[in-house]
Amino acid sequence: MDLPIIYHPDYVAPLPEGHRFPMPKFGKLYEMLLSDRVATPEQFHTPNPPPQDWIELVHTPDYIQAYCEGTLDSKAQRRIGLPWSPALVNRTCTAVGGTVLTAQLALKHGLACNTAGGTHHAFPSYGSGFCVFNDLAIASRVLQHLGLAQKILILDLDVHQGDGTAFIFQDDNSVFTFSMHCEVNFPSTKQKSDLDVPLPMGMDDEAYLQTLAKYLPDLLSDFQPDLVFYDAGVDPHVGDRLGKLALTDTGIYCREMQVLSTCVAAGYPVAAVIGGGYADDLDGLVYRHSILHRAASEVYRQYHL
């Protein structure tokens, strides 16, 4: 079997014209992976929206109901930053189901990737920073609930701290949260991850990869997780509108190879999500997100998974 990839055709939600952060990158990523022959149609798996009781493992019932029914107050809606629509509700819930399915396939095959996910700013009772439901936290709780995994490492390399994830698991020793992020970036008020590595503005490829190498092997050997969730945000890229770091396409590729090879070689299965990325050049942004899947396909072949 080839690398399992999770995709849902309804990821593209219509947003008002002129909205700053359009969502068509999800559909375009699927198209690029096919057109560049990174993947074949047979590698893609279509998830289902999760049952509400799965979402309630992390989020409060009142918040879930208000969001799904479109009755959040205006302040809560502005904090999320995305205009509400039934299509966006469907996309949000399906992306959560996609991350759960990614994790299940990673446990079975050693490595799997989502073409969405990484909504790490969502807290139990509210959304924030373009994140509605925290797919990484929900998937972690679902796996534990189903008895598929107990010790979980959330490796968050999005340029922004995974504050919602850190808060959700702040008193839980079964889930280790690691966030390597730009120190002067959103959110202004940081939460406390199990391990935070704040980075200075403008950090380039070499310094970034050296910093990651300083922590990752010891993190794996010390915690010994049953599964690694990898948030492969591409907003550390020099061309990102919200990033403030200076990684290149090559740096992103080296990062993905470093993370995936280190985990897989040590026997730890990885469920990867694409995380954040914001740019005016949509094609360039989609390519950067595709680097995760290109690297994962290479690692999957190298290690005969």
UniProtKB/TrEMBL annotation:
<dbReference type="InterPro" id="IPR000286">
    <property type="entry name" value="HDACs"/>
</dbReference>
<keyword id="KW-0378">Hydrolase</keyword>
<dbReference type="InterPro" id="IPR037138">
    <property type="entry name" value="His_deacetylse_dom_sf"/>
</dbReference>
<comment type="similarity">
    <text>Belongs to the histone deacetylase family.</text>
</comment>
<dbReference type="InterPro" id="IPR044150">
    <property type="entry name" value="HDAC_classIV"/>
</dbReference>
<dbReference type="InterPro" id="IPR023801">
    <property type="entry name" value="His_deacetylse_dom"/>
</dbReference>
<dbReference type="GO" id="GO:0040029">
    <property type="term" value="P:epigenetic regulation of gene expression"/>
</dbReference>
<feature type="domain" description="Histone deacetylase">
    <location>
        <begin position="24"/>
        <end position="281"/>
    </location>
</feature>
<dbReference type="InterPro" id="IPR023696">
    <property type="entry name" value="Ureohydrolase_dom_sf"/>
</dbReference>
<dbReference type="GO" id="GO:0004407">
    <property type="term" value="F:histone deacetylase activity"/>
</dbReference>
<dbReference type="GO" id="GO:0016787">
    <property type="term" value="F:hydrolase activity"/>
</dbReference>
<dbReference type="Pfam" id="PF00850">
    <property type="entry name" value="Hist_deacetyl"/>
</dbReference>
<protein>
    <submittedName>
        <fullName>Histone deacetylase</fullName>
    </submittedName>
</protein>
